[in-house]
Amino acid sequence: YHEGFPAYWTLLIAVAVTPSAFFFPTIKHVVNWRAFTFTLFVLLLVSVLWEATLGVPYAWWNYDRRWMMGIMVDAWAYLPIEAVLMWFAAMWGIIIVFELLRIHFAKGQSLSRSLFGK
Q1: Phi-psi region of 16 (alpha: psi -120 to 50; beta: other; left: phi over 0)
Q2: How many helices (H) and strands (E) does the chain have?
Q3: CB count, 10 Å around CB of 99?
């Protein structure tokens, strides 16, 4: 099923992936990757179980398929792949913003210098 423009996917890339890819070199050395991975997997487990077993099958909410890419997970009540990827992107974006702010406040420098270096 694919009629319209994949706006949900485009928004996900524009808001979560592009800025985080830009700032990743700044924060990659200060992230606790083991804690991030554990928290990510717990968040993904809870969110997918919540959406796939309760939200979509019981029609508590639904997705407008005109704005999706058309890739659905059949085993999870035709949950759009964007819904699953959104939780990963949200976690990734949160850790990027948190570490950027932590670096900024720890250094006590101007925002541009603490974010982009020398």
Answers
A1: alpha
A2: 5, 2
A3: 20
Torsion (CA) 14, 25, 117, 27 in degrees, nearest 10 = 90
Q: What is the pLDDT of residues 28-70, one digit of tens each?
A: 898 999 999 998 889 888 887 888 888 888 878 888 888 888 8
Which residue(s) pair with 72 in the sheet?
A: 80
Q: Name which of 24, 14, 87 is nearest 50 in CA terms.
A: 87
Q: Are 52 and 76 spatial neighbours (Cβ–Cβ below 8 Å)?
A: yes
The residues pairing with 80 across neighbouring beta strands, listed in sequence order, are: 72
